[in-house]
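Q: What would this chain look like folded?
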Amino acid sequence: MNGTWHEVSRTLLTLDDDQIRTRANTAAAQLDNTVLLLVRRGDEPVREYAYGRTDRLSQAGNLAGFTVTPIPDYPDLPDDIIRSRHAIVPWRARLNTVSNMERLRERSQEVRKSIESLMPADSYVSVSLRKRGPFEQSRIRDWVADEGNTVEDENEYVRANTMCARITAGAADPVQARGLAASVGQTVSLLSDMSEHHSHPRFGLLATSIMVSLLTAVLTLLSPLPWQALAVPAIMLLGVLLAYLGGRAVKVQLPDWWLLFPLGLAAGMTPAILWTLPMWVPAIPALTIIPLLIRWMRRDLYDDIMQRPYSRFAFKMKRFATTADKETRMGDLDQRSRVTDYPLHRSTLIMPPLTVVSLYAPAGEAAALQQDLHPVPETLSHDGVMLGIDQTGRTGYIDPSQLYKGIAIVGEQGSGKSVLTYGFMQWALNHRQDTPRTVWGADSTVIDFAMKDDHALTAMARYHERHGQPASRTITYLADPRYKTLDLCGMKDGKDAYQTATGIAAALQYSFDDGDIRNDSLDVITTAMTIAVAATRYEQNRQHHQGDNPPTPLIDRIHNLASDRSCFGADRAQPQQSPIGWALMALCGSDGQTGSARALGKTMRALALEQPDNPDYVEASRAAEQLYGRPDPQGHNPVTDQRLLDKTGASRNKIRQFMPCEHVFTPSRGTLTWEGILSRPGEYHIVLAPHDGYRLPERMDTILGAWMMYRLWNTMTGMCQGWQQEGRHVMLVCDELSMLANSDDQILCHLHEQGRSFGLILVFATQYVKQFTPELLRSFTGYGTFISFNTSDPEIAQLTADRLSDSDGADGWTKGSVVNLSAHWAAVRSRTEEQTQPSFLVHVHNFESDPV
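A: My prediction, written as structure tokens:
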């Protein structure tokens, strides 16, 4: 056989009974010279493989509802299987018939399920197929006619494209292997009995060579005696008979034992004719034994799996007729004494086309009955943003002019959501120069929020390598302190300390759950952040000072106040690295507690007196007075330490959550700004996923994601008005939208509702639709393009089906059809400028390993 091994999987094409029967003949014809292999490893589900030409297997799969994927090597078989057995038709077997068409259909649909249920742990079943020969076809017709004692055309065995099959089975337990081979043979045949025997691949030629060599040696010894020459044929025939009986005794099936007669005749007549030759004549056929012995010893399981069904060249066999053979359907008696025996080699089974197709089609429930009725609409099959291939072989696209309406992608983990987002990014980079400015264009920016992993970077690196482009992209890992990152606190926005602190407090309020930061807590955080921003800028200015008299470090000025009674413990204060650290000190959460906090406040008042023209220190001084109070003339402070601790407690707990990832907020890392990213078209990847052993604390990815979205939206509202008309665009991509959302998700809703005027294109994917608020869910499912992979959650499946269907499921888009979507198959609902298009199915292209 010439071909390749493939892995077989079920497609969404589900046929009714009449369609299966109609297509079976055509599909079976494409499976000539193929091998089907079913493998169960341990308690895993059965996996299906097929050997043959890829084009013919694909054609059969398009008809029968399966798809094939070439694999580079032979499939792995369970290690515990040592020997194989294969099904054989016993002498006692008689032909049964199926009484009506309905029973035949039911039987064909259950063949594959029955075989899989028969397979124990660590086992395999293989079926090797070939077409019938012309002599075999006529013999099968005669045999069927004799067995049924009626017109042979009523039986499935005489249909066009009926195949010859060899069934081999193996299992870790030899007893189970015996039962499996016979049971599978019985399942696929219409015979009354089925047996099995050991498989001995490569033994036939070896046995023939040994027999011919022995006969040649014996007859050569006898050949000098002329009177014994007449005994040569008799001895030859006796040797052939003994070889055949010996093979039967050890259950060895030679391809056709009748073929031994001409071989034996040649071996016997050679010494009779050439008796004058030397005694080394027997060595000539004996030379073939050694290579054949080596070949036999190197056999493995695949020698039997790949064995073609044997052909039978002997004359048509007869058997004695039984009483049942003589009774016709009309009640008459047929007086024949002999009828036609099984017409093929006993290890070769006859398999109708319907059974062949049932074997190849992977077992699966028919929940997605109407899925084959959803090809790509004609208007979306020519050009645009490529998605993949539908079941008819056409490519499915999305109209680029509708991208501004948003792309919503849902599905379970591993279904292909993230891979599809890579495809949108690749299209965006590919078509900057050849799309209208109203759709996309050169002044366009791609911003990718990688929340789950950094596979997008690998996929886009392959994209740049394929196109020979330098990977001119900006990458930041929030969790990895070795990378530059975004200025989350707005230290580079050019605002004074109070305005910057107000923005930080608002971002915090948006990032935490609704109600966590309100009223007094919000005011306290704003006050503490004002002090923290001023302290951070003081330290930045001091570090950049190049004069002869550098400013005193802020921590030293705090330590110098330790002698003040109100600042007891200030000498234990530690230098801080970020506004978050200084804010925690201002909220009495650092070493020295209230003493360090009051000392920090007094230091800010001193700086305000030293530099009255610096608004940061003036505002920080006012904030310190509001937070810690102003002492009366006698030096008594109305805000006691306990009252201060109670006042700052809730805010302190919120700020403390950021300390395990304080490096995210350090000014030395926060060199990127949203204003800079939006003003410079390019490719940006912001990764919140773990990297090289660094990871954000629990829930911090969600908090920081919402923080970034808050700052991005505020930046866009200030600088991106009218960008769509100017031909400037921004594509926001996120592989898990739930990590950018929180209970206050107004910004994500605004991105969809108002983003078009900003030139905004949203490509959002999620697994956790049920975590969305009702407002965000309505917004998300209302995107112009809705793409769904499979999901096992019934609520999400019903929600998706409602979005895909135009007629409450009557068009085939039901909850069951969504649940039963195969891996990497997606249901798509999109539109053109004119109208919404019917939902369709595509097998999504693998944009990660094969970028476009």
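The CA atoms of residues 675 and 715 lie 6 Å apart.
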